[in-house]
Amino acid sequence: MENTSGTSGKSDTSDASENKPKNDQSSPSKTQSNKTESLPGPMDVLRGARAQLAELTGMEAESVSSFERMEDDGWMLRIEVLELARVPDTMSLLASYEVTLDAYGALTGYRRVRRYERGRADRS
């Protein structure tokens, strides 16, 4: 019985010492994989773009009507924003904003591309 407890004590010590070098050796690979994993996914980009545009313009985003990844790994979105609330709601003024973001989801630019009443459909 003393050998068993002594053996388990040795194996516990050896297991602990074996784990430390493994963790130290795997740290650089974790750092490298974190660089790739640090890029936000599409939903994170979408949520961040809405929040950033609202902070810059002071207007809340109603919806995202277009969302695409660009060749430079950036993003381009078209976000519909309520610019002027009116009664009845169908007379409220909305605007489409084209928003560009870098690969990490930081807003790099925006511009209003269209302004329209909520109750009016496009004539396409």
Any descriptors?
single chain; 124 residues; alpha+beta; 4 strands; 42% helix; 4-stranded antiparallel sheet
Please characterize this protein's 3D structure.
The chain is of the alpha+beta class. The protein is 42% helix and 31% strand. The protein has a four-stranded antiparallel sheet with strand order 1-2-3-4. β2 and β3 (93-101) form a beta hairpin. The longest helix has 36 residues, at 2-37. The model is unreliable at 4-33 (pLDDT under 50).
Beta strand %: 25-35%
Low-confidence stretches: 4-33
Order of helices and strands: HHEEEE
Give the beta-strand count: 4
Q: What oligomeric state is this?
A: single chain
- Percent in helix: 40-55%
Head-to-tail CA distance between termini: 86 Å
Instruction: Describe the sheet with the most strands.
Output: 4 strands, antiparallel
Total helical segments: 2
- Let me know the average pLDDT: 81
**Structural shape:** elongated
With strands numbered from the N-terminus, the spatial order across the biggest sheet is: 1-2-3-4
Q: Which structural class matches the secondary elements? A: alpha+beta
Radius of gyration over C-alpha positions, nearest whole angstrom: 26 Å
How would you sum up this structure in a few lines?
The chain is α+β, with helices and mostly antiparallel strands and 124 residues long.
